Amino acid sequence: MNFPRYQRHSTNCTRFPDFSLEACMSRKIALFIIVGAAILFVALVLDRASAAPLIAVGSTYTVTNTTDQSPNPPSGSLRWAIDQANANSGPDTINFNIGNGGKKSILLVRELPKLTSPVTIDGTTQGQYNGAPLIELNGAGATQGVGEISGLTLGADANGSTIRGLVINSFRANGLEIIDGNNNLIEKNYIGTDPDGADAFPNAKEGILIASEAGTASNNVIKNNLLSGNTGSGIHISGADATNNSIQTNKIGTNAAGDGDLGNDDYGVRFENTPNNTIGGTGANEGNIIAYNGLAGVILELRDGNTIRRNSIHDNGGLGIEISGFLNSSAPLISPVGTPPTTQATVTFTGDPNTQYTFEFFDNETCDPSDYGEGQTYFLTQSATSNGNGLVSFNVSLAGNFITVTATGGLGTAQNPMFTTKFSPCYTGSPYATRTPTSTATDIPTKEPTSVIATQTVTPPTPFTPTPTETMTTATPTACAGGRKPNRPSNVSPANNSTVFVRRVPLAWNESSCFKFFKVIVKEGSKTGPRVFKKSVTTLQVTSKELKKGKEYVWHVKACNAKGKKHCSKWSPFWKFKISNNAANIGGQNDWFAIADDMPNSAMLINDK
Q: Which domain holds residue 431?
């Protein structure tokens, strides 16, 4: 039966004679129940909202000051912003707007809170940012708390975070840690240097540590950072479940310009028992510069399956690529076709049967002393397939100085992972001077003030007779004949086992034959302690930065006649000195004297202007 529209929606049961009274009333009761339930639900939601407002998802917190205090960090501080982001479900953003912009240093009093929620910490938001980071996190004064202190730590609950545009230096452990963390982006940071990227302000361990301990540490991207000057390695990835991490477009061991030595003391990049990670790539500008590091440029330990593509690896203390503890440690071989010099060469390599390999060729200014080269300038890729016995052999036209090649292959499966070999032995092609290296690194020594005899009379803790010292002269650089290394210099002052009474310590040594510059390193505590000072100079002395009262330090020096560790002498022996608890500036000047344990009746008084 068709009813008028108003009748079909009427609540008056008497208007519907075809409906029983019971059916009509049931419909009416059901409607009232539904409406009542809806009203009750809305009331409950409004009551809950008025009692406890919901935390906004995706909040932005702005750092407006450099103050650090714990507990109870003030509003607008970085510690406060991290606490707020950790309390929120995220993903959140931490921006910077300190003062009128420009460089700002946050001197931390203790370790920052571990990041436990997804967050973007973006130093590029600081005013006047123009490509180089302006916000420094300095851990030198982080004395509250005990044990190892790292700059920033990302845990598993912070997956998907971004750390961008920061300077992170002077921490007692790592600059930045990702522990069981995934899908994080670390970019545009300076880790282990000063804010200018010109001097080493070391973190005592690694620049960046990525580790799988109780979970996975995968799919993290480390790109476009400066990772130099650290006491450990620039990047250390550890653990069987730390996989598919990418390292691209970084400068590891150089200054910010990519042309000077700020090498990490250990490796440039260290992979420890970790598979399926990538250093560099085949795309435009994906390669890293890995240079001047104390040991190998890259070391692969205990585990296969990592690829190293189109990087500039040169002037490291060890091999360009070192492989330790597993198969696929062989390298291709380049042999001349005909009588050298010739541009025609044969490349041979033994791998798996019937497998395609990609060979990448590099030119080098010099060859590593091991005869296994590094890879300074990438210039050619060629692919070839092995025969049924696993042998690859092909001819190629090569022209350069010292040419090396790597092989990359594998199926990318668990049974047959992708891998890259170490560099081949150097091949001397037909030299030419038209190829421009990716990184033409040159040490630019800084001349330090000359130290002279002071005129003040000083009474030391024990009687002594002042020993006059001539004004220290600037050394005259000379070249080594036949490309040989300079002689090892010897330390002069402060003498071994000395006590020093000023915090900025003049260090002096004897001249070395055929040198161009000297490198000086000071470490705290012992030769395995954190590096606190590093400098290249043409003089026979340099003044350290301000050191800590009551602390012991060791120092040594070496002479170089060209860039890169292979052109330097051996280091001099470590000499030890201690900064007195009473160290102070004498007469308002940077005066000092040292009393050597083996020379109890003599001391040196120097005025450094």
A: 331-442
* Measured distance CA(256)–CA(251) in Å, rounded: 7
Measuring CA to CA, which residue among 511, 495, 500, 501 is closest to residue 573?
A: 495
Do both 363 and 317 map to the same domain?
no
pTM for the complete prediction? 0.70
**Closest residue by Cα to residue 190 from 148, 161, 224:** 224
Residue 324 has pLDDT above 80, yes or no: yes
Instruction: Give mean pLDDT, residues 188-216.
Output: 96
State the DSSP string of 331-394: --EEEESSSSS-SEEEEEEE-STT-EEEEEEEEESS--TTSB--B-EEEEEEEEE--TTSEEEE
Token couple for 481: 């004949």
- pLDDT: is 518 or 211 the higher one? 211
Whether residues 413 and 271 share a domain: the answer is no
Tokens coding 601: 């009746």
| Beta carbons of 242 and 217 less than 8 angstroms apart | yes
Distances (CA, A) of 521 to 23, 121, 254: 96, 33, 16
Distance CA 448, CA 593 (A): 19
Contact yes or no for 420/321 (Cβ under 8 A): yes
- Give the CA-trace dihedral at 105, 124, 188, 445, to 10 degrees: -50
**Which candidate, 162, 266, 307, places its Cα nearest to that of 531?**
266
Helices and strands per DSSP (H, E), number in the chain: 3, 44
Q: Domain ends where: 326, 347, 369?
A: 326
Residue 264 near residue 253, CB atoms below 8 Å: yes
Q: Assess whether pLDDT exceeds 60 at residue 46.
A: no
| Sign of the dihedral through C-alpha 135, 140, 146, 149 | positive
Q: Mean pLDDT throughout 505-512?
A: 90
Residue 362 structure tokens: 């590099």
Q: Are residues 64 and 25 in the same domain?
A: no
Residues above pLDDT 90, as percent of the chain: 54
Q: Could you give the CA distance from residue 573 to residue 317 in angstroms, rounded to a whole number?
A: 18
Selection from 332, 351, 208, 192 nearest residue 271 by Cα? 208
Does 32 lie in the same domain as 146? no
| CATH code assigned at 581 | 2.60.40.10
Strands laid side by side in the 333-336 sheet: 333-336, 344-350, 391-397
Residue matched to tokens 């016995």: 389
- Residues contacting residue 302 through CB under 8 Å, at least 6 positions apart: 272, 273, 324, 325, 326
SS (H, E, C) 76-139: CCHHHHHHHHHHCCCCEEEEECCCCCCCEEEECCCCCCCECCCEEEEHHHCCCCCCCCCEEEEC
DSSP assignment of 279-316 equals: EE-SSTT-PPEEES-SS-SEEEES----EEES-EEES-
Do 172 and 254 share a domain, yes or no?
yes
Q: Do 491 and 422 reside in the same domain of the chain?
A: no
Instruction: Indicate if 92 and 212 belong to the same structural domain.
Output: yes
Would you say residue 493 has pLDDT above 50? yes
What's the number of domains the chain is made of? Answer: 4
Instruction: Kindly state the DSSP code that residue 195 receives in the 8-state scheme.
Output: T
Please give the average per-residue pLDDT across 528-543, as a whole number: 80
Model confidence at 433, pLDDT cuts 50, 70, 90, reads very low
Supply φ then ψ for residue 3, to 5 degrees: -105, 155
Q: Which of 424, 442, 460 is the last residue of a domain?
A: 442
